[in-house]
Amino acid sequence: MRRRNAAPAEPLESSESPESSQSPLSSLPSVPASRSRNVIPGFMTKPRTAMSILAAVILALVAALVGPMPAAQAAGMGPTFRIGTDHGSDYVNFINALRAAVNDGGRTVVPGAGTSYQVNHTNPNLMPGSQNWPAGRNRHDGYVQVDIQMWGNSNFVRLQLRRADLYLIGWWDGNNVYHYMGNRSVPDEERERMVNGHYYNAKAISRTSFDENYVGMQTTANETRSYMAISRDTINSAVWYLWDANNQQNMARGVLRMTQFISEAARQRPLRDAISLVMGNNNVYRIDPSFVAQENNWGTLSGRLNWLLGFPEGHRDPHPLNGYRIGPYGTAVLIVLYTAIDYAHWILATSKGRN
After folding, report:
1. Is the pTM of the predicted complex or chain greater than 0.90?
2. Among 134, 194, 336, 351, which residue's Cβ finds the most Cβ atoms within 10 Å?
3. What is the pLDDT of residue 329?
4. Using one digit for the tens of pLDDT, what is the confidence trace for 88-127?
5. Among 321, 270, 342, 330, which Cα is nearest to 38's?
6. Three-state DSSP state, 32
7. 154: nearest Cα among 130, 136, 134, 174
8. 142's torsion region: left (phi>0), alpha (psi -120 to 50) or beta?
9. CA dihedral 179, 181, 183, 189 (to 10 degrees)
């Protein structure tokens, strides 16, 4: 018997126009008070003791210090997350496994940042259809498949991500129909899913009524990224929406939530750590609008980090960009990004390409 959402009905949101003995708290790099300001808290917690709240915060901070680690695997042998049994540290490992899967094979350590704050880099040449496709690489390498298991059910939904930029571009429903976004042709390599080391074709393919961009998804979903509720229940509902695939609004909601839970969390270190706080418990995190704005600037932030990596360690940007790091309980804190070390410590988990 599959477990549906046992919590009260989900809130709808109107659409918008288009490793030492040192404490994890004390081991984090400090940011001068003059360079930060607090933004709205994003959590709604059920009654908890002060000790359990502190434990949750420490869990996220410890998770932020952990480098890429292997995740449990489903039959597809890709990164896997189990909503009903996995916790915050498992979620961090899941995201880190995805980061490792899309890395271009080059250096991930940012000089001066330490090995706990590595930044992965995607390979733009692995874009499906690229004229610069690396010789000898299988065309299946343009994609990364991940699995999300429902709560209290043995089924997984398989999602297809583009390796070159972490875009979520499609998924397989419970009938092995491949649903894809965008007005484009779908190559055989995209519609084939990996099972036990072999690729198998989808039963059929179906294009969604919404495109792969956020404007299209949010309009159809009647839900926005800003203040989106992220919890085990809302993520579980999203997975069932994609498994059933029988309603365009629900499918758009499922995809929109999965982009935050998977793609954006693999790009943004603070979003990953904020979401990890509500996995394995009954709390809810509402995505801070500042993190949403930061999502829109992933390419710009990546370009600046990649540029700074061409200078000696600690080189200061004469025209620094602003960014948002995670604060207490998932709040967004504005900081100025002077060096590549700042990007690695506070903002980017995965950079778009490299110089």
Report:
1. no
2. 351
3. 82
4. 999 999 999 999 999 999 999 999 999 999 999 999 999 9
5. 330
6. coil
7. 174
8. alpha
9. -60
